[in-house]
Amino acid sequence: MKTVAERLRSLDKERWAAFVALAVLVVVSSLLSPYFLTPRNLLNIMRQVSYTGLIALGMTFVITAGGIDLSVGSLAAFAGSLGVVAMNRATQAGFDPIWGVIVALLVTTLVATGGGFANGLLVAKAGIAPFIVTLGTMAIFRSLSLYMGEAGEFRSENQLFGDIGSGDLLGVPIPVLVLLAAAALLSVLYNRTRFGRYVKAVGSNARVARYSAIDVDRVRLLTYVLVGLMVGVSTVLIAMRFNSVGSSTLGINYELDAIAAVIIGGTAMTGGRGTVWGTIVGALTLGVINNMLNMVGISPYLQGTVKGLVIIGAVFVQRRRN
Amino acid sequence: MDEALVRSEGLGKSFGGVPVLQNLDFAIGRGEILGLVGENGAGKSTLMKILAGIHRADRGSFTLEGRTCDFRSPAEARRAGVSLVPQEFNLVEDLSVEENVFLGSELLGPGGLVDRRTMRAKATRLLAELKAEVGPDARIARLSAARKQLVEVAKALAFDARLLIMDEPTTVLTRREIASLFALVRRLRSEGMTVVYISHKLDEVKELCDRLLVLRDGVLVHEAATKDIETHEIAARMVGRELREIFPPKAGPGAEISNPPLLELRGLSSPPGFAEVSFSLRRGEILGLAGLMGAGRSEVAEALMGLRPSAGAILLEGSAFRPSSPREAVASGLGYLSEDRQGSGVLTAFSLAHNVTLTSLPAYARTLGLVDFRREEGAARRWIERFGIKASSIAQRLENLSGGNQQKVSLAKTLDAAPKVLIVDEPTRGVDVAAKQEIYRFLAELAAEGTAILLVSSELEEILGMCTRVVVMREGRVAGELSGGGLDERAIMYLATGVGEGSAA
Q1: Cβ–Cβ contact B108 with A under 8 A
Q2: Are residues B13 and B122 located together in one domain of the fold?
Q3: Segments forming the whole domain that contains residue B444
Q4: pLDDT digits over A246-261, tens only?
Q5: pTM listed for this prediction
Q6: What is d(CA B286, CA B300) in angstroms, rounded to the nearest whole number?
Q7: Of B326, B368, B371, the CB nearest to A211
């Protein structure tokens, strides 16, 4: 048996760097504002990060396998638009509100997962660079949702839909619960399953993976399907929250926040290794920074500067470790 | 003035707490060719990487021409006159030969622009001296392994090196290329160059070097003039015991002769690699596939593994078989040990255990694809024990293991999927005598257990020592098949080169 000390030593330092940084940030924030540590504020931060956090969880797999997905924000708008449209049709046809919610949920996740599948096919089967594929689909998905909504908003005609979005369980907002459950599940998928091992092998050296009888194309394809699914879940939650989907506003900069959370969390941009819980820490770090800047009254226009510096700093630390 | 070019005192180095070099005192004389031999993991490469500025010593120091050195980068070492030709190629595939030769030390003309004309002239001259038969414009990706090796040598010689270190330079060269490399090294010596020559091929060390150092487990155990020591003694010093037979005794043409063919190729073609290749492989047999570099041997192996398209027939246990990916080939019972260990064999960033089960992972998965870690660790431990892999733990990353130990892990990975047909391509490349002997023993054991083995090799000694039947390829075609009394070194070379046949025609 290993002693505790041995276990501690064998832990990856990069796994803990993000945790330590977040802890320092929390201490500093609580000193700056007495309001920071109140349960309400903390839950608020967690809810704010849960939408992009969910996408970041899927993005962890994509980046670990050596890919990238820039289309997640546009895909959210596209899938969400179709979901709300379908729900309103169901409501108009006289179905129960609960059926409307189920229709929205199914349509949104199916469309988003299908979008991810399309990205995956283009990357894995057509062999186009992930950056190019998702840059292209980013434009396509956004344009389609703008066209459908004429750049306006799809309002939900289903009150139940909005009620669920602002609901909670024992005081914890539903999106936060979904985020934590997804992180727990995906952490198992990442660390303990064949698929997780293959994702890392493909990102580490795709040639070795291929020679080792791994279906590299399938693994890559599935990572994009997974991030698509997470986009779907996230979109349903955020559409519920506002009880509407803005065809021009939903999902703006989601790809940046999701990628930033993954990188700050300690996943290697070059692929091959990473951590799922680190991504949650990365997302929380971004949320805490925003919250703190708001509380000390720094212009919201400057928040992007701070965020950018944190991302560059995180990659710099990662580079020095290698 | 000190007659030694390099002198070290108490040099030591550890990786992750494991000492790799301990308290080394040695001298390298001016203008000598010094052989450096030792088993895998003995510390040869680490020692040379310290001299060449890739690693820094933890303890002790060394002097170059009397001045104490502590190189912080290969560039610094190169400026001081120390150049290393590494074992694994270190070339940028997308750049030309000339650009690679001067990479990082481009010659500048007026205005700070690169002086292409001078660089080109110098590269052309160097390549001609090496008899490389390659132009300065050629892209590295298009060159054969042997040519790449020569570009590495040219790169090392491009600047006024006083100490040239060659790490296993001949593993990818043919006999003729080796002979011209030796001629070159001797000429360099006559011009005053000092050369350190690292090799597992003791015959080569004996032939080329003036003096040799033997390392064992990071300690300098012997030092001698090569004319005073026989190869078997060198081998014994390396392993610390007497080495008798490198090759296990051949079972001889025995029961396996009557076995039906397990794998059969009938007129298999894959242009431009090879055409019309036919042979059969029986259960329990080790069939040699010999030939010069570029004869199409590795391409045949790749076609069998579904790595390149082919036409013609492949029969596996009597039924047609045409894999379109390594996954299908492995699922049908084939196993492949590639000649390119780091490029396609092992994941250096993965742990030993995760490498061992990479191919066979489906066998360790339970419901929902969850990996059974305990069984996986058990498998890794069994392979460590069976192959005598030197590692601090099963969690150790492969990048911290020596080349020979990585090769054993690569073989363990292939065998953990329990293949019926095992294809090994240059299984002992860059591996020391003791590990070689072990690998040969494993292969013989596997054959005895019924595995059909296709041994692809450019080392005649290996082919002759292991096989009772050999298929020889030349220029993409089968030049002939040898067995029994007709199987000897001359007959293989005859078929491989076509020399003699032409005069008869």
Answers
A1: no
A2: yes
A3: 260-333+419-504
A4: 999 999 999 999 999 9
A5: 0.78
A6: 16
A7: B326
